[in-house]
Amino acid sequence: MFLWLGKSTLINSLFLTNLYSGEYPGPSHRIKKTVQVEQSKVLMKEGGVQLLLTIVDTPGFGDAVDNSNCWQPVIDHIDSKFEDYLNSESRVNRRQMPDSRVLCCLYFIAPSGHGLKPLDIEFMKRLHEKVNIIPLIAKADTLTPEECQQFKKQVSLLQPPALVFENGDHCDFTLLRNMLIRTHMQDLKDVTNNVHYENYRSRKLAAVTCNGIDNNKTKGQLTKVDTVEGMSPLAQMEEERREHVTKMKKMEMEMEQVFEMKVKEKIQKLKDSEAELQRRHEQMKKNLEAQHKELEERRRQLEDERSTWETQQRILEQQKMTLEKNKKKGKIF
């Protein structure tokens, strides 16, 4: 947005690093005929803390003769990041979701000395409900103090109630750096998540009908394709739900098969144990029957021997009695 306003210098000074190398110069050296959103990422480390910073450039913004809808690529880019986050958030199986939403927009105002231009006013009106806007008067040292104060008054009338960090007794650059990096970084994240993203999310989900058609697309409110596959969030959730149900049914079938196999193995093991016990029972029964027969045979033999002995004893008694009788008869005669 507007060339030669010191955007690259300000960003480099804010983060004390050179975001634009010689191979990839700043947006001032990459003059575009049309508005095009370009991203630059740099990994910074300070005090053992790493920060992955993403800078979004819009070379060519406001430089055309006809600037009608020149803010639309910026709006589309912000909505696309909201859409990506919404798709990640709408999945059934949520993993770590990369947050690529735009947290803050530094809008550089050209130091014309004649107040805000209609383009500045229209841009901030279009974007103030989608992103945190921080208007910056570029090269304010070229303005008189009265012009600078008048600029700030005009900007404050356009901006909704937000964070007030203006203090004329200190350098605005120092306050800006402290606000972005130290004091209000989490506030920018919270406002983006709880206000701007929730507004987009509510509008998006309210616009999606049961058949997956986005009615707002005909009105030009949401121009980005619903998802990468061309599906609405509700249709995507329904598709993922069906996939999840199919996966659960497959897992259930596999678990049932494993369970049936385990049950069959257990039943077979019980049958084998029962057969072994039955075999041992039959063997013990046979052994007991054999012992019983042996005992019966020995008892029978014992009975026979006793009968024979008793018979012999009776014979001996009879012989003895006969001898005694014979002796008595011999004495008599």
UniProtKB/TrEMBL annotation:
Q: Which organism is it from?
A: Sinocyclocheilus rhinocerous
Q: Where is the Septin-type G domain?
A: 1-155
Which residue stretches does the UniProt record annotate as biased composition, category Basic and acidic residues? 289-308
The family database entries (PROSITE patterns) matched by this protein are listed as: G_SEPTIN
| A Pfam family of this chain | Septin
Q: Gene that codes for this? A: LOC107726640
Q: Which family does it belong to?
A: Belongs to the TRAFAC class TrmE-Era-EngA-EngB-Septin-like GTPase superfamily. Septin GTPase family.
Q: Which InterPro entries match?
A: G_SEPTIN_dom, P-loop_NTPase, Septin, Septin7
What does the record give under GO molecular function?
A: GTP binding
Q: According to its UniProt record, where is this protein located? A: Chromosome, Centromere, Kinetochore; Cleavage furrow; Cytoplasm, Cytoskeleton, Cilium axoneme; Cytoplasm, Cytoskeleton, Spindle
Name of the protein in its database record: Septin-7
Query: Which segments carry the region annotation Disordered?
Result: 289-311
Q: Which UniProt keywords apply?
A: Cell cycle, Cell division, Cell projection, Centromere, Chromosome, Cilium, Coiled coil, Cytoplasm, Cytoskeleton, GTP-binding, Kinetochore, Mitosis, Nucleotide-binding, Signal
- Cellular component annotations (GO), alphabetically ordered: axoneme; cleavage furrow; kinetochore; midbody; septin complex; spindle
Q: Which Gene3D superfamilies match?
A: P-loop containing nucleotide triphosphate hydrolases
User: Can you supply a Gene Ontology BP term from the record?
Assistant: cell division
- Domain of life of the native organism: Eukaryota
**N-terminal signal peptide:** 1-22
